[in-house]
Write a structure and sequence with these properties.
There is one protein chain. This protein is an all-alpha fold and 308 residues long. 76% of the residues lie in helices and 0% in strands.
Length: 308
């Protein structure tokens, strides 16, 4: 949203917004929480729009229109602030972050063809568990015992959600959603590095621009004629993408990331409601247990990971 997170992704994108905007506006936790809730509602709505898309519309086409529409909406603000504000010395980092963002959404969209909206968003929300593991491999960072316990509990929750014994294996949709959460972790770590020097508006502009350019070949390769229903959903997805990212910037300008991070899990609640209302799907007992474990362990992981 994100973006993106937009959905759990925002927990970590918050570092960028907080560092650059913490002193710009007075703290207002209530307003920030309401705006953040709007952002995560849009995450769930975006996922629902993807699931409602005709099967003839390929993921590459959805990804392209998601970003090109968001870019069009982003350009006026970028021009208003002046082209000089877009100058950056961190272009390679922007490219890495943006490529990871494209892959994250691509995997997320693909997963929605196989599993429920709720399960896809929950499994994508495993990003907090991947972050310490990525840092362990990348920088040999020490993982505390509390983090190890919360990560293990989180992945036990994943097993409850996926219930591999039911089919004898982890289905493709679950693996794609988990992979989306992992790649989102790479994106989040790159955002943290960008946050040291880059304002959020600049990061947002390059994200939409580079992602649009990268997704063009995939859209061309998988293009097929679109009916009115598909066009409407594509426009909705693009608008939601921009709203997710922009509302997160606003939310984290009014309150610190540490206070807003738990709200990211509201996307799971919203997706559950949409699954119930639109597709008449509800998790079974094991699914509910898994969701609770993932949310609880994720919140603990977010808190302790930020202390290290």
């Amino acid at each position: 949203m994100a973006s993106a997170c937009a959905h759990a992704n925002a927990c970590f994108e918050a570092d960028l917004h907080e560092k650059n905007m913490d002193q710009i506006k007075p703290q207002n936790l209530l307003l920030a929480s309401l705006v953040a809730l709007l952002s995560y509602l849009c995450v769930a709505l975006m996922g629902a729009a993807v699931k409602l898309m005709p099967s003839t519309v390929h993921t590459g086409v959805m990804i392209f229109f998601q970003y090109v529409i968001a870019l069009i909406l982003c350009v006026p603000l970028a021009l208003k602030q002046g082209l000089a504000n877009l100058k950056t010395q961190k272009f390679p980092a922007h490219v890495l972050r943006d490529l990871a963002g494209v892959v994250t959404f691509g995997l997320f969209f693909l997963s929605l063809a196989y599993i429920s909206l709720t399960n896809s968003i929950v499994l994508r929300s495993t990003t907090p568990f991947w972050i310490p593991l990525i840092l362990l491999v990348w920088r040999r960072d020490r993982v505390s015992m509390v983090l190890w316990i919360s990560i293990i509990i989180g992945f036990i929750g994943v097993v409850f959600i996926v219930q591999p014994g039911t089919h004898g294996y982890f289905n493709l949709g679950s693996l794609l959603a988990l992979a989306s959460g992992f790649v989102m972790g790479i994106s989040a770590l790159t955002i943290r590095r960008l946050g040291k020097t880059e304002p959020p508006q600049r990061t947002l502009f390059y994200y939409f621009l580079i992602a649009t350019i990268v997704s063009i070949p995939f859209a061309i390769y998988s293009w097929s004629p679109l009916n009115l229903h598909a066009w409407i959903l594509l426009i909705i997805i693009g608008i939601l993408m921009y709203v997710i990212q922009y509302t997160l910037i606003i939310a984290f300008s009014y309150a610190k990331a540490s206070k807003l991070s738990p709200i990211s899990y509201s996307a799971i609640v919203f997706s559950g409601l949409l699954d119930w209302l639109v597709w008449h799907q509800v998790p079974n007992l094991y699914g509910y247990i898994g969701i609770v474990l993932v949310i609880a362990a994720g919140m603990v992981t977010i808190f302790f990971e930020k202390q290290t």
